[in-house]
Specification:
320 residues, 2 domains, Rossmann fold, Cytidine Deaminase, domain 2
C-alpha cells in the first residue's frame, strides 16, 4: 500500500484512499439525529434493500418491508420488523398495506426488472389493479424511461399523502468515497478510456438510457440499457474477446437520489472477471457500494482496478 505522498508523485493517478475509510466512524451529517420513525421499504432485487433495512433498524427506525414478488429477496424478512410480498402491478395493495402499517416515510431500494413490461401477454400476467392503471394512464404515458416510471409510482403514492425519502438519508455510509479502492491502478491508456467513457456515460444518463458504458482503446464496446449493468458487461465480454476493457458507471446529471442510484457489489466484480474487464470507474459520492471491503478484496484477487472519481477531476486531468 502506498502512502498519500507516494501516490501524489504520479500526476496520472489520484491520491490513494485506503479501505479503512469504510470501517471508520464518520459523521455523515447527523444520521443519528433523525428521530425514530416508521419507515416503509418498497424493495426490489439485490442486496441494497437488505443493507438499508439493517442500517435503518440499527438507527432505531421501525421498518415495514414490502418486497416486489419475484424480485425482492426472501432474506429481507429477517431484517425488517414486518415484511410482506406484493405483486409488481398492485400499487393499490401496496398503498393499503403501508397505510395500515402507519408508515411515515417510504424508501425505494433495489432493482426493478423492467424487462417484464416486454413479456408476451404482460397485462394478463401482471394483472394490474385500478391504482396501477391510474398511474399508468395519468403519469407514464409519455414514455417508459426509468425516471418516468419511478416518478409515476411516487406521484401515485403522493395522492395518499405518502412522502418518499432517499435511502441514503438513513445510510449515507453506503456512498463510495473518493479515491482508489484497490491496490491495482489504471494505466495511462486506461485513464484515457475512463475520461473517454465518462462523458458518454453522463450523456446516456442525461437521456435516461443507462448508467454504464464499456470502453476499450477509446472505442465503445457496450452501453447499458434495459438489461442492467451485469448483462451489459457480459455483452462487452462477448464482443471484446481480448478483454482488458474499462467499465465506467456514473450517476445521471439529473439524478434523483430517491431511486435508481448507481450501485455496485460483489456480483459486479465477478461479472467483470468472467467477462475480461480490468478497470471499474465509478462516481465518488454518487455511487452505492455494497460490502466495500469484500468488493475491494475480490477485485484485488482478480487484478481489477476500482477507482472513484468525479467530473471536475477528470476535466483537470484532460487539460494537464
Amino acid at each position: 500500500m502506498l502512502s498519500d505522498q507516494e501516490s501524489n508523485s504520479d500526476p496520472d493517478i489520484l491520491p490513494f484512499v485506503g479501505r479503512s475509510v469504510f470501517g471508520a466512524s464518520i459523521d455523515h451529517g447527523g444520521t443519528n439525529l433523525i428521530a425514530p420513525m416508521r419507515l416503509g421499504l418498497l424493495a426490489g432485487a439485490g442486496e441494497f434493500p437488505i443493507r438499508f433495512a439493517r442500517a435503518a433498524r440499527n438507527a432505531g427506525h421501525y421498518v415495514y418491508g414490502l418486497g416486489v414478488s419475484g424480485m425482492a429477496s426472501k432474506d429481507l424478512a429477517q431484517d425488517c420488523d414486518e415484511f410482506r410480498f406484493a405483486p409488481l402491478a398492485r400499487l393499490g395493495k401496496a398503498i393499503r398495506l403501508f397505510r395500515k402499517a402507519n408508515v411515515e416515510r417510504i424508501i425505494m431500494a433495489g432493482k426493478i426488472e423492467k424487462t417484464v413490461l416486454f413479456h408476451p401477454f404482460r397485462w394478463v400476467r401482471l394483472m394490474p389493479d385500478w391504482r396501477t392503471l391510474h398511474m399508468w394512464y395519468h403519469y407514464a404515458r409519455k414514455n417508459k424511461k426509468d425516471d418516468t416510471l419511478l416518478l409515476a409510482v411516487i406521484r401515485e403514492f403522493e395522492r395518499d399523502n405518502f412522502v418518499f425519502d432517499s435511502a441514503l438519508k438513513y445510510c449515507p455510509e453506503l456512498l463510495v468515497k473518493h479515491g482508489f479502492l484497490t491496490h491495482r491502478r489504471p494505466s495511462a491508456a486506461q485513464w484515457k478510456d475512463i475520461r473517454f467513457g465518462w462523458d458518454l456515460a453522463r450523456e446516456m444518463g442525461r437521456l435516461d438510457i443507462g448508467q454504464t458504458v464499456v470502453v476499450n482503446g477509446t472505442a465503445v464496446i457496450a452501453v447499458e440499457a434495459i438489461e442492467g449493468t451485469d448483462r451489459c458487461i457480459r455483452r462487452a465480454g462477448e464482443l471484446c474477446r481480448r478483454g482488458g476493457f474499462t467499465v465506467v458507471k456514473v450517476a445521471k446529471p439529473q439524478q434523483d437520489m430517491r431511486f435508481d442510484v448507481p450501485t455496485i457489489g460483489i456480483e459486479t466484480i465477478k461479472t467483470m472477471h468472467e467477462s475480461g474487464g480490468k478497470v471499474l470507474a465509478i462516481e465518488s459520492g454518487m455511487t452505492i457500494i455494497i460490502s466495500p471491503q469484500d468488493v475491494a478484496e475480490l477485485a484485488d484477487k482478480f487484478g481489477i482496478s476500482i477507482v472513484a472519481v468525479n467530473a471536475d477531476e477528470l476535466a483537470l486531468q484532460a487539460a494537464a
